[in-house]
Automatic annotation (TrEMBL):
Its main location: membrane. Keywords: Membrane, Transmembrane, Transmembrane helix, Transport. Pfam families: MFS_1. This is Major facilitator superfamily domain-containing protein. GO terms for molecular function: transmembrane transporter activity. It is found in: Membrane.
């Protein structure tokens, strides 16, 4: 951390020292003055010797001390919140790491000997600041909190591996269960699902629309329930209930039952993803969570590969006991995810210090390990002790995020960015059947584009981090999609089926910018308190995107869907313009803030830093990523 502060100070010590040295006032001044306890001269010497810019640090520290004197007149809650905001802004000012980008963002850390102290410096080391950050009485892990507790790397690293096996591995399996039950209708389509129920493509579009609307409407209520009763109770309940409904599709009779099950599955699955992320945050530090979320999202892509392979075998049961193969597909995969849901009841725990149960009498961790977990998490983010894990939340943050108009451009991107690929992806298996491929070949032929899409998604996420460009990477995605939908539109009706398959496969191998945009939204939120809500709003925009794209291909436009593909060409072209306009908007916003900041004197800047009530991306010293 200190090396990052120094690089920023050295880089921006010229014309605009205070604007870019806000890290020194918000974190360097606090960190370098409070990272080492008052009696720990060795740590202080290490920090100061690593800087090489003692004069800048001294100036920042003086400013910090004067700011603290001014704040003594304020209430403890105001002081505490201001320090949390400053630390959050410092973390946000660092180069953002999206979930998938963490795969290649590993850097060789400084050589650590097993016996070295792993305890992270924090506000708890300073007697003046520590009182503002004590865990509340209702915090479930309070009995293991000890600000004087120390531990070594030899103790922490094996503990993190244990948590990965207990929590991260479970989350990946749970996501597999979610995606298996929501997407197996695509495999069912290869087995004459629509014809057997007397449905057409319009009915199929309506079913997908009903599912996504239900999923969308359940997002926020599910998060409220999860925070009230606890993710360890709510998530398994969700999984068991949607698995029962999914398996019950074995008895579908027609349009009404089809739409009813689509609605129920959407309602029960909505909110599952943010619920799991909330649960994982109980166990991991902010710097550790992105890599675990990368594994979580990769489980989604893995399902798209495994699901056709399962269907290849299960659909061969057509005729067994007189039932169609797709009925057995729904039933057996529903039973599989039901087993995963029941297992989750026994696998999940309320918190790091509440792992004991009648079937797990010794729990997961020793008392010593629990102390390490609780103290390492709170040292990383003291605000995690503000609420009990069974405490409900309010709609205040939702309203605050809705009013943050600087995030609206990213929500707008979420509404349209993947729409050119949506209908071809949704109709992939139906298209393959129309091209003359049988049930089993259609499932196998749907796998290559899922693999190539995963690779291209990793690549574009890497490039966005390497080049520090986001809007331009979105343009790259649309430039990939545009000629593909043009080719799909111009493809003759009598073209070779392999030519049509090649066009669709190349189109669906597009480099998705979804993971990049989740990180973009998080970066431009700029506070820990609003990131979860803004991520949910972005995800709701993406779900709305899916609802719209589900209704572009219509029955009267089949089988070539010329009108639908013409609309996709227009949307891809529009998206290029949207990405460029979003970039121009953020460049303009940054320029306006630069002009305002440059007009302020050094004293005015210091006064602003110490007294401003602006939060998150509203601060004058914050610059938007684009």
């Amino acid at each position: 951390m200190s090396s990052k502060i120094i690089r920023l100070l050295q880089r921006h010590s010229g014309d605009t020292p205070w604007r870019h040295c806000q890290k020194a006032s918000s974190s360097a001044s606090l960190l370098l003055s409070i990272m080492a306890p008052s009696g720990d001269s060795d740590n202080k010497d290490k920090i100061q010797s690593s800087t090489g810019v003692s004069s800048s640090i001294e100036t920042a520290s003086k400013s910090s001390r004067s700011s603290i004197n001014e704040k003594e007149k304020e209430s403890p809650e105001v002081i505490r919140q201001r320090i949390l905001d400053q630390e959050a802004e410092f973390r946000a000012s660092q180069k953002p790491t999206t979930n998938l980008a963490s795969f290649w963002s590993w850097k060789k850390s400084e050589s650590r000997r097993p016996e070295d102290i792993a305890t992270q410096p924090s506000v708890f080391d300073n007697p003046e600041l520590a009182p503002y950050f004590q865990p509340t009485e209702r915090y479930e892990n309070r009995h293991r909190f000890d600000p004087s507790f120390k531990w070594t790397w030899a103790e922490e690293i094996p503990l993190i591996r244990k948590i990965d096996w207990k929590v991260t591995a479970w989350s990946c399996i749970a996501f597999f269960a979610l995606d298996l039950d929501r997407s197996n209708i695509s495999q069912a389509n290869t087995d004459n699902f629509l014809d057997d129920l007397g449905l057409d493509t319009n009915d199929y579009n309506l079913g997908q629309t009903v599912f996504r609307i239900s999923f969308l409407l359940a997002e926020l209520p599910s998060q409220l329930i999860s925070k009230k009763v606890g993710p360890d109770r709510w998530i398994p309940a969700q999984m068991v209930l949607w698995s029962i409904v999914s398996a019950a599709q074995f008895w579908l009779k027609g349009r009404t039952s089809f739409l009813a099950t689509r609605a129920l599955i959407g309602l029960l699955q909505g909110g599952f993803i943010p619920d799991v992320i909330l649960y994982m945050s109980y166990f991991f530090k902010g710097t550790e969570l992105p890599f675990r979320l990368a594994l979580f999202w990769m489980a989604n892509r893995l399902t798209d590969v495994v699901s056709p392979l399962l269907a290849y075998g299960l659909l061969r049961l057509r005729g067994y006991h007189g039932y169609e193969g797709w009925r057995w597909l729904f039933l057996l995969e529903g039973i599989l995810t039901l087993v995963i849901g029941i297992w989750s009841y026994f696998q999940m725990v309320p918190s790091p210090t509440q792992t004991k149960a009648p079937w797990r009498k010794k729990g997961w961790f020793t008392e010593h390990e629990e102390k390490i977990m609780v103290n390492r998490i709170l040292r990383d983010d003291p605000s995690k002790s503000d609420m009990h894990n069974r405490q409900a939340i309010t709609f205040k943050l939702l309203w605050y995020s809705l009013c943050d108009f600087d995030l609206w451009p990213i929500y707008l991107i979420g509404l349209t960015f993947s729409m050119p690929a949506g209908p071809p992806d949704q109709y992939l298996t139906l298209t393959l059947r129309q091209l003359g491929f049988d049930t089993f070949d259609s499932n196998l032929l749907s796998i290559p584009c899922q693999i190539t899409c995963t690779i291209s998604m990793l690549l574009i996420t890497y490039l966005s981090e390497k080049l520090n460009q986001r809007a331009f990477m979105g343009v790259v995605m649309q430039v990939w999609l545009l000629p593909c939908v043009v080719a799909l539109y111009l493809l003759p009706a009598d073209a070779s089926r392999w030519a049509a398959y090649a066009v669709v496969t190349v189109l669906l191998s597009y480099p998705s910018t979804h993971a990049m945009q989740v990180g973009w939204c998080s970066r431009n939120s700029n506070t820990v308190r609003t990131r979860t809500v803004s991520a949910a709003l972005y995800n709701m925009a993406v779900q709305t995107n899916s609802i719209i794209s589900s209704n572009i291909y219509r029955r009267d436009d089949r089988p070539e869907y010329r009108r639908g593909n013409r609309a996709l060409i227009g949307i891809a072209s529009m998206n290029i313009v949207i990405y460029l306009l979003v970039k121009l908007y953020y460049v303009w916003r940054n320029k306006r803030r630069d002009e305002t900041w440059e007009k302020m004197s050094q004293e005015e800047r210091r006064n602003y830093m110490a007294t401003t009530t602006d939060k998150g991306s509203k601060r004058l010293d914050f610059r938007f990523a684009h």
